[in-house]
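Dear U.,

Please find below the material for section 3 of the report. The protein was modelled together with flavin-adenine dinucleotide; I have listed the sequence and SMILES used, followed by the predicted complex structure.
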Amino acid sequence: MRTFEYLKPASVNKALALLDLYGDQAKLIAGGTDVMVQWKKRIISPQVLISLRNLAELSFIKFGGGLEIGAGTTHRALELSPEIREHFPVIHDAVSNLGSVQVRNSGTIGGNICNAAPSADTAPPLLVLDTNVRIASTKGERTVAIRDFFRGPSRTVLQTGELVTLFSIPAPLPRTGMAYSKHTRRKAMDLPIVGVAVLLSFEEDLKTCRKAAIALGVAAPTPMRAANAEAFLAGKPVDKTTLLEAGKIASEEASPRTTIRGSAWYRKEIIRVLVRRTGLICMERAKGAARS
Ligand SMILES: Cc1cc2nc3c(=O)[nH]c(=O)nc-3n(C[C@H](O)[C@H](O)[C@H](O)COP(=O)(O)OP(=O)(O)OC[C@H]3O[C@@H](n4cnc5c(N)ncnc54)[C@H](O)[C@@H]3O)c2cc1C
């Protein structure tokens, strides 16, 4: 029978000290919704699990210009935050349709990002929001832009002894609309076949694109920004036609795999459609933001 030791430090500093002590024998566990599945499937066999569960230091949502989210914040806490819904709807879109309520009650945003699945639902929203990831170890802290955080499927820039403490998001420009759309095989509790986040900031005319950010999930080995599609939209009047073209460009930038969930060709088609559809939602939301 496989066993592991389960350690529950009372603070982030104590967790970091334990990470130092056990090195590669240890695995962090937050909500455990990925870790326990991987343990059962024998993908991982840590000798020590270091729990971050219920560490108040890691569980918070702070507004003030921008937004800071503690890595241990559950998807459910984000889903239920009225401020997230109003000011960062792209995050609300993603977390309110992630797994089941039970999964959202345990699963954390830090776990979702650090697990580094190409299908992680919170990755495209954090990418379009230009999020910075704060990383701590016993040696100190460092900050990495989320677009540099992922290194491949299940791989990140995290070194042994490091953990993520928070995600820091700058305040969006005025007249910004943002949205996330997920295409799944079935309506309930499914990983995305493709996930698309779009953020559009407009000039005062509410037509000309001042800034475009487009991020794709399950479109490459890591969640990615569609830089060419973004450059195409910047400075242009945004409408159905330009969004359709941006969708085509984004789909050309993507390099998805064929898997049991969907073929590469199908994923590219869905990207094309979802960029346009999600962009249209952004336009509506930007108008709403300008009115309020
Ligand atoms: C039934 C089911 C449905 C699901 N549906 C979805 C879905 O629709 N969309 C989706 O994206 N995901 C889905 N998931 C996957 C999972 O729920 C999410 O990825 C969740 O956010 C993981 O968070 P967690 O806190 O449970 O992570 P854990 O399982 O505790 O940890 C995941 C990984 O992150 C590491 N880690 C955790 N916290 C930190 C930290 N602070 N610093 C460094 N490393 C850390 C762990 O060591 C581990 O490698 C589903 C899972 C299940 C079981």
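For the text of the report, you could mention the following: Residues 27-35, 37, 52, 71, 98-99, 103, 106-108, 110-112, 114-115, 119-121, 158, 163-164, 189, 191 surround flavin-adenine dinucleotide (CB under 6 Å).

Regards,
Y.
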